[in-house]
Write a structure and sequence with these properties.
- By secondary structure, the protein is α/β, with parallel strands linked by helices.
- It contains 6 helices and 17 strands.
- Strands 1, 2, 3, 4, 5, 6 and 17 form a 7-stranded mixed β-sheet that branches.
- A hairpin with a 3-residue loop joins strand 5 and strand 6.
- Helix 4 runs parallel beside helix 5.
């Protein structure tokens, strides 16, 4: 029996674990990996106090801190959640885990295009992670679907490997943060194609070209999809109140509609999705868990 069970090993979950363990609460973090989406980020330059750092480096720092404070890690997938007699029971792919409180810090998963050819060619030129897969396109042509900061960051990463990078944007005028656009404009092997959408991904055993909604085809050895993230709500949608986007509804203390159940990070209805905000929400959820446990002891 744990005082706190946390599902999710990203910045929110790791920060929550660090805070609960430091308060002397027996804490378990359930996750398949460590770091979540930040491990797919090549450069982070806006995390306070750290300057330029990779996502993997930041994840390891928070992981090491959490472990040093006594957090136990269960590297498994959470399959179901149930509340029985004020105890949260989490069934994982390995075993059953019980906790007096529960923090959901699941993050989000990449949004798919949903076009013909995407499912068939996943892992054969269709990618959702520039940091993971850009090196595979060394000397090749890579197309990036998306808008804004995420597409620009992915293009900058890919440009170091691919001979040509095409950004396929549905906007008439492509926009991103000024600092990122300055970096982008300095690269000569990137082209922005505006006002288009992907209709189909073509290829037999690997990506060969991309058919656009205007009928044209773009020759490409791969396609990197950067169109945001969605919440996988199957684990909790029948337990806790969610909004129209499938996000968990929280109050300012990260409490949900279920007593003893808290949430933090990108899985919540917070309007801003940033690493530092996820970490802060993890800390708030942890302190709320401590306060809740103190209250029910009385």
């Amino acid at each position: 029996m744990y005082d706190v069970v946390i599902i999710g090993g990203g910045p929110a979950g790791l920060s929550a674990g660090m805070y609960t363990a430091r308060r002397g609460l027996k804490t378990a973090v359930i996750s398949l990996d460590i770091g979540g989406q930040i491990t797919k980020t090549s450069e982070i330059e806006n995390y306070p106090g750290l300057g330029l750092i990779t996502g993997a480096e930041l994840a390891k720092k928070i992981f090491d801190q959490s472990k040093n404070f006594g957090v136990e890690f269960i590297f498994s997938e959470a399959k179901s959640i149930e509340k029985k007699d004020d105890v949260f029971v989490v069934q994982t792919s390995a075993k059953e885990v019980q906790g007096k409180t529960l923090i959901l810090a699941l993050g989000k998963k990449p949004r798919e295009l949903g076009v013909p050819g995407e499912e068939k060619l996943k892992g054969h030129g269709v990618s959702y992670c520039a940091t993971c897969d850009a090196p595979f396109f060394k000397g090749k042509i890579l197309s990036i679907v998306g808008d804004g900061n995420s597409a620009v960051s992915a293009a900058i990463t890919a440009a170091a490997f691919a001979k040509q990078v095409n950004i396929l944007s549905k906007r008439e005028v492509f926009k991103a943060e000024e600092a990122l656009m300055e970096k982008l404009s300095a690269l000569k092997n990137i082209e922005i194609i505006n006002n288009v959408q992907v209709a189909e991904i073509l290829g037999d055993k690997k990506v060969e070209s991309i058919k656009l909604n205007n009928g044209k085809e773009v020759t490409s050895d791969g396609i990197l999809i950067e169109i945001g993230y969605v919440v996988d709500r199957r684990l909790f949608e029948n337990i806790v109140k969610i909004d129209e986007k499938g996000q968990i509804v929280c109050d300012p203390a990260q409490a949900t509609s279920v007593p003893g159940l808290f949430a933090a990070g990108d899985v919540t209805n917070s309007p801003y999705k940033q690493i530092v905000i996820a970490a802060g929400e993890g800390a708030k959820a942890a302190l709320s868990c401590f306060a809740y446990l103190q209250k029910i002891k009385k």
